[in-house]
From TrEMBL:
Organism: Parabacteroides acidifaciens
Domain DJ-1/PfpI: 2-164
Name the UniProt record assigns to this protein: DJ-1/PfpI family protein
CDD domains referenced in this protein's UniProt entry, alphabetically: GATase1_DJ-1
InterPro entries: Class_I_gatase-like, DJ-1, DJ-1/PfpI, Prot/Nucl_acid_deglycase
Assigned GO CC terms: cytoplasm
Coiled coil: none
Length: 181
């Protein structure tokens, strides 16, 4: 079974995290939510507490087909402060597996140099943090194994792009039809 990990940091954007998890699971992808703190309960940007499946120190990261970062503030900044997470993203990227981020979170990928020379998108105002990227402003950008999304209102586009990349276009189309998109 294909696997994905969605990382949660305090201040994450709830729609982006949970919408992505929902879409991936509808696509038959095994999704694990991972708190980057030592606590399983992570509070979103709009004060919604979510219980993660695992903590970062308690999960095998190199078995995932995709590592995914939801945005939100200060969630994206908190993700960016996690050295173990950043090392996992670099390893995932080097091995040709998917790294993905939406909203403010592409700044993590930009800071790691993973967006250099690539088309990428993000929440308006975070463009300078996408170091070396060609920032397009599109809903979703796919560049090899790097996927970026613009923001919460476009989580369906982001999630479906992930399903297509992890599985295939047919599964993504089936999920979209079930969502009446």
């Amino acid at each position: 079974m294909k696997k994905a990990i969605v990382f949660l940091a305090n201040g994450f954007e709830e729609m982006e995290a949970l919408g992505t998890v929902d879409i991936l699971r509808r696509g038959g992808i095994e999704v694990t939510t991972v708190s980057i703190t030592t606590d399983l309960v992570v509070t979103g940007a709009h004060n919604v507490p979510v219980t993660a499946d695992k903590t970062l120190d308690n999960v095998v990261l190199n078995e995932a087909d995709a590592l995914i970062l939801p945005g939100g503030m200060p969630g994206a900044s908190n993700l960016n402060s996690s050295e173990p997470l950043k090392e996992a993203l670099l390893q995932q990227y080097r091995e040709g597996r998917i790294v993905a981020a939406i909203c403010a979170a592409p700044m993590v990928l930009g800071g790691l140099g993973l967006l250099k020379g690539r088309n990428a998108t993000c929440y308006p105002g975070f463009e300078p943090k996408l170091i070396g990227a060609n920032v397009t402003g599109e809903a979703v950008e796919i560049s090899d194994n790097v996927i970026t999304g613009k923001g919460p209102g476009l989580v369906m586009n982001f999630g479906l792009a992930l399903v297509a990349a992890i599985k295939n276009d047919a599964v993504a189309e089936e999920v979209a039809a079930g969502l009446l998109l």
